[in-house]
Amino acid sequence: MIKSMTGYGKGESADPQGRCLVEIKTVNNRYGEVSVKMPRSFLAYEHEVRKAVGGLVKRGKADLFVQWEPAAGEVVVPPLNHAVARGYHQAFQELAHELHVSAEIPLSLILAQRNVLQEQTSEDQGDLLPLVLQAVVQALAGLDGMRLREGEALQADLKARRTELATLVAQVRERAPRVVEEYQQKLQQRLEKLLGGTELDPQRLAQEVALLADRCDITEELVRLESHFIQFDETLLLKEPVGRKLDFLMQEINREVNTIGSKANDSAITSLVVQMKAELEKMREQVQNIE
């Protein structure tokens, strides 16, 4: 089952204490990476949230955002840490005196400093983990649905391009035997023209043709390509992350096509190889999007 690495999901859950909103988006990445951003009071839940995300997202970069909106009756003024506030005020006064600055120190500057206003802790809020996980699961379900739909489109495109690639390979296979035959005919005609009626040595001509046939033989490459195609088709049907395996197969297919291009001493096969490389590049770009 093919899944795209790109997707988005949103979840929401609520209880008398408030409402939890979760958003998650994923993009392409060679490895699996999860980034979680949530209120400081929810940090105790981060491990369980990461565990839930990691159970679904095997490859790609996932960014998850958690927002908490307290119910109207639950909104409280954050407690003020007077000692920390006084410390900041004193530090600002000393700095102003040292720099010979006479401007007043605004209260907003002190309140903006770290730990002056204390956030409500998860202990004060009660256990909100089930509520958070409910929203996370809902967001992951939306994400997975989108990634599956994207994956179906990728799979259809890859199958179409794989069919086109197989057609080009079949044309190469059909053309390959004629390369040696045409070379033999052209070589014989050139030698007859140069020798001006002198009898050709059939054995010597056969040796030259055999040498070319050996250099231009692409049978092994065609056999390996067929094997890679079979593995490619089988991999598309697996119900697990297949992005890395497909990427490896694309490298192997590309290597065989390059070898065919370098060995085939024929303009028609070279033209077919150029078309195959164009299709392979498009396939490779699509494979980069697969989990």
Automatic annotation (TrEMBL):
GO terms for molecular function: hydrolase activity; RNA endonuclease activity. Residues 172-291 form the Endoribonuclease YicC-like C-terminal domain. It comes from the Bacteria. InterPro entries: YicC-like_C, YicC-like_N, YicC/YloC-like. Keywords: Endonuclease, Hydrolase, Nuclease. Residues 2-155 form the Endoribonuclease YicC-like N-terminal domain. Its cofactor is a divalent metal cation. Belongs to the YicC/YloC family. This is YicC domain protein.
